[in-house]
Design brief:
The chain is of the alpha+beta class. About 30% of the residues lie in helices and about 45% in strands.
């Protein structure tokens, strides 16, 4: 399983505001933490994404760099993603580090921590 590719699929679904695909990609107990919010559980994660999508006209994500944690366990894998997020026809551009933890055997996202850089 290529976890960096799964991250790119997640970013593609996010920029397309495809909540159904995102819902299929996350674990039931997924956690989301960024500079504005912290939620736990699939339902709250999906609702947080819906609010983000409602607040912006469009989203474009450029993946600049990716790396996988060297000490990944057999139970989880962590991927570091340096991304550039363009919102509302480039009126807002964010430099972000997304740290995405996966359940190794299922490939589902267990947590997503986003940091402005």
């Amino acid at each position: 399983m290529e976890f960096t590719d799964i991250c790119k699929q997640y970013f593609q679904a996010f920029q397309e505001k495809d909540i159904e695909i995102i819902e299929q990609m996350v674990h039931e107990s997924v956690e989301l933490k960024d500079w504005e919010l912290m939620v736990s559980g699939k339902s709250d994660f999906i609702n947080a994404n819906k609010k983000i999508f409602a607040g912006v006209e469009n989203i474009s994500i450029i993946v600049k760099n990716q790396g996988i944690q060297n000490q990944s366990t057999s139970q989880s894998v962590i991927v570091f993603n340096e991304i550039e997020i363009h919102l509302n026809n480039n009126s807002i551009i964010l430099e972000v580090m997304d740290v995405i933890e996966f359940e190794a055997k299922t490939g589902l996202i267990k947590s997503l921590r986003a940091y402005k850089i």
